[in-house]
Write a structure and sequence with these properties.
heterodimer, A: mainly beta, twelve-stranded mixed sheet, 2 helices, B: alpha/beta, eight-stranded parallel sheet, 15 helices
Chain lengths: 234, 441
């Protein structure tokens, strides 16, 4: 590792291991640690930059494997490539921006922060999300927002089948077509407060699209209590 | 056929219990949900006996010669393995299914005797962490309350694939147990039924699990042991795959293992008993040359030191208790019989742990009921019980001439039934016959 600028630490994965990278990022909890990092030659490695627990910015060059930025707190990461399964899973806070496409379960169970995917996201994007905001410039695959509990999923393209299946209180916004909606997921009125909040979120994500071009989906709340009369729905 | 009413024939197939269930289903239109584990008779540790010392085996002196019970868990990869003073741990049970007082009592009891307790679905409570000197943090499919700070605060991590009571099943915590605190921890509205998923959201299969475990190790700097918990079904293959995925410790839960709320038909008809599951897991570990390198914790029907000793003799490194721990806290106490009867049950039968009306204050979120359980007193009761189990285990081990409980071995055991002999892989008492071995059956 070496520094090219006074405040940027370069971590080349041809020269150091994933373990050394993550340990260095975890040591950021110590005072005086550098706050700008650049990771080179990611080469599809798994578990890159996971469990960060301090404010810093991390640029990752190359494609990343499973669980990149998993359980992130405070940090802002940008990935210049595509991402494997479970990008930013269970993120707590901070921001993760993916310049390419994401594999399945992007943002799974995330509890906070913002995940921006500038390409497409595969199946189960935002599965069991618990407060995270996810903005996808492209389209998402099937069963996205499955059992999503809290937070917002914004899809600028199309949504695959069974969007929002068994949804709880998460809010979904889709600009294109939603192939079909999952159990208990319904289209809801887009009121002023939703337009304002969505507009602010799109601005935050750096996406220049009008909020009024989106449709809103949410839970019909008919599955909130087990009812034998709904057996055909399950 | 019954001789209770001469001249009248009662069906063995359609017993009065079966008739009652059919008529209940016809009235209510829904299956029976309950807590606890399998209740029907199953081949179990009771079907095994120890041979004890004899002409060729020297016993150790009771109350004088040392019989060690310490266990180290997580020696494969973790920088900080768990050091337990006794080979008996407390199984994962959620805050939500149990009251905060009950969770604290479990932590106090376990800590008093130098063993670990385990979180559950719904996350880690501060009371539980403070009361538990060694706390295992579960990573479950629902990820309710999943927090990297708690991962870092934990002493070990347990990735849960399933439970013995319901391999392949998720769960449902009914709305009456979802108060504001439980709901807040789970990021869900209060008072609604909460589904616990049956599949993990971000991995599928053993290859993915290997990567998931690596992520958890990276997040925690490879300090914590990583357990993998499996419900007993295809125990041989699941154990081998968990080893392949990188587990430090395998937790194997037989069908007698408890649950907070599951369909009765699921509890009684899915999965296999602890006895054959344990044998299969040990076989898999042995064939991979991983026995004692990847530690094995077995649960599902552990009640006495005899059960503990038999599980260890069959090859487990430790056992885990859930139902028995709740009973030690006061669940199903005869002193509460009148209150159980008001709920349509009775002491010894109460298993409506899903309902949230537990008069013992254990399986409830009702503040008045929960306040009946004093965590300090509960912790002392659990510690007493754990000490008793440990001493009973030592008594048996000494009688077999063992200076450490891990020196117990299958050779110390005999089976009382052909079924138990086949399932446990030990000879039928008085014979050298192990059904299924050496091509003989």
């Amino acid at each position: 590792m070496n520094a090219v600028a006074s405040e940027t630490r370069i971590m080349d994965l041809r020269q150091i291991s994933v373990r050394e990278l993550n340990q260095a990022l975890h040591d950021l909890r110590e005072e005086g640690a550098p706050t700008r990092w650049q990771v080179r030659n990611a080469a599809g490695e798994h578990a890159l930059a996971v469990g960060i627990n301090a404010p810093c910015t991390v640029e990752i060059n190359g494609h990343v494997g499973y669980y990149c930025a998993g359980m992130n707190k405070y940090a802002e990461l940008t990935i210049h490539g595509n991402a494997g399964t479970g990008l930013a899973e269970n993120m707590m806070s901070g921001r993760v921006t993916l310049k390419g496409n994401a594999s399945q379960s992007a943002g799974a169970t995330g509890r906070g922060g913002l995940l921006v995917i500038e390409g497409d996201a595969a199946a189960r994007c935002g599965i069991s999300m618990k407060g995270i905001d996810i903005v996808v410039r492209g389209s998402v695959g099937h069963l996205s927002a499955f059992m999503a509990q809290r937070g917002r999923l914004v899809v600028c393209g199309d949504a695959g089948p069974a969007l929002g299946d068994s949804l709880y209180e998460a809010q979904l916004f889709v600009r294109g077509q939603a192939a079909d909606l999952g159990a208990d997921c319904i289209e809801k009125e887009m009121r002023t407060e939703h337009l304002e909040a969505l507009g602010a979120l799109l601005d935050q994500a750096g996406i220049n699209l009008p909020a009024r071009a989106f449709r809103r989906y949410g839970s019909a709340r008919t599955l909130y209590h087990f009812n034998i009369d709904h057996a055909d729905t399950y | 056929m019954s001789s209770q009413y001469p001249g009248m024939i009662e069906s063995a197939l359609f017993s009065r219990d079966v008739i009652a269930e059919i008529q209940r289903a016809a009235t209510e239109g829904i299956y029976d949900i309950r807590g606890w584990g399998a209740k029907r008779p199953l081949p179990h540790f009771d079907d095994l006996v120890f041979l004890g010392a004899s002409m060729s085996r020297y016993p150790l002196e009771g109350y004088r010669e040392r019989c060690d019970t310490r266990v180290t868990l997580g020696t494969r990869y973790a920088k900080k393995p768990l050091e337990l003073k006794i080979p008996i741990t407390i199984a994962g049970m959620s805050f939500g299914a149990l009251s905060a007082q009950a969770k604290e009592a479990l932590g106090r009891g376990a800590s008093a005797v130098g063993t670990s307790t385990t979180t559950g679905d719904g996350g880690m409570t501060p009371e539980e962490r403070a009361a538990s000197s060694l706390l295992v943090y579960q990573v479950l499919p629902s990820r309710y309350g999943m927090d990297p700070d708690d991962l870092r605060r934990a002493d070990a991590i347990e990735v849960v694939l399933g439970q013995g009571a319901k391999p392949g099943g998720g769960g449902m915590l009914l709305g009456q147990k979802i108060n504001a605190r439980v709901a807040g921890m789970r990021d869900l509205p209060p008072n609604i039924d909460q589904r616990s998923a049956c599949r993990h959201p971000d991995w599928t299969g053993p290859d993915d699990l290997e990567i998931k475990i690596r992520e958890l190790r990276e997040i925690t700097d490879w300090e914590k042991p990583v357990y993998v918990k499996i419900g007993a079904s295809r125990s041989y293959y699941d154990t081998a795959l968990a080893v392949k995925a990188g587990a430090d410790v395998i937790v194997l839960d037989g069908m007698q293992g408890g649950t907070a709320a599951t369909q009765n038909v699921f509890i009684e008809h899915v999965g296999i008993p602890t006895l054959p599951a344990l044998r299969q897991a040990v076989e898999a570990l042995t064939e991979l040359d991983m026995h004692r390198k990847v530690q094995l914790i077995v649960s599902g029907g552990i009640r006495t030191g005899a059960d503990v000793a038999k599980a260890l003799a069959m090859g487990a490194d430790a056992v885990s208790i859930g139902v028995a721990a709740l009973i030690a806290l006061g669940d199903n106490s005869p002193a509460l019989d009148e209150e159980y009867r008001k709920l349509g049950s009775r002491a010894g039968c109460y298993d409506d742990w899903q309902a949230g009306r537990d008069p013992a204050g254990i399986t409830t979120q009702d503040e008045t009921l929960a306040s009946r359980l004093d965590p300090e007193l509960g912790g002392r009761r659990l510690a007493n019980y754990l000490r008793t189990l440990n001493m009973e285990t030592q008594i048996i081990a000494r009688a077999c001439g063992k200076s450490h409980v891990h020196n117990l071995e299958p050779e110390d055991l005999a089976a009382l039934t052909i079924e138990a002999a086949a399932m446990a892989g030990v000879p039928l008492a008085g014979t050298q016959w192990i059904p299924g071995r050496d091509g003989r059956f």
